Amino acid sequence: MHETSATNFFLDSIPDKEIWHILKHMKRDAAPGRDGFNVAFYRAAWPWIGDDVTTLVHNFYRIGTLPPEINKIFIVLIPKKNAPMLPHDFRPHQSLQCYLQSYC
């Protein structure tokens, strides 16, 4: 079987429900990456992000890499009080770029 045909066969054999099934059977408080989103988040948000996550997984198996945007992190300072003036008046927050919408 040609490599491309074998890859397509493999991808076609992974039903979209299988990705949800794997996620559903993971520990709820497990955090798979440094994004800080645990499995409970992905389960709760699945109605909104499920198609994008599934497409991301299929694309990973098709091309063998993840998009470089997956590792971009934005750091913002959130004020702890009204009229912050000093560094300790802010709380740093990091968030990953929403790569799912731009990639999938």
Descriptors for this entry?
two-stranded antiparallel ribbon, disordered C terminus, elongated, 104 residues, 47% helix, alpha+beta, 4 helices
Please describe the topology of this protein.
Layout: H1 3-12, H2 16-24, H3 39-63, E1 73-79, E2 90-96, H4 99-103
Antiparallel strand pairs: 1-2
Helix pairs in contact: 2-3
Strand content: 5-15%
| Rg, nearest Å | 18 Å
Tell me how many strands there are.
2
Based on secondary structure, the structural category is alpha+beta
Coarse morphology: elongated
Elements, N to C (H/E): HHHEEH
Mean pLDDT: 75
Spans where pLDDT lies below 50 across 5 or more residues:
98-104
- Characterize the quaternary organization of these chains: single chain
How far apart are the termini?
28 Å
Number of helices, counting only DSSP H or I runs of 4 residues or more: 4
Number of domains as seen in the coordinates? 1
Give a quick account of the main beta sheet: strands, pairing sense, barrel closure: 2 strands, antiparallel
| Widest sheet, order of strands | 1-2
Helix content: 40-55%
What does this entry show, briefly?
This protein is an alpha+beta fold and 104 residues long. 47% of the residues lie in helices and 13% in strands.
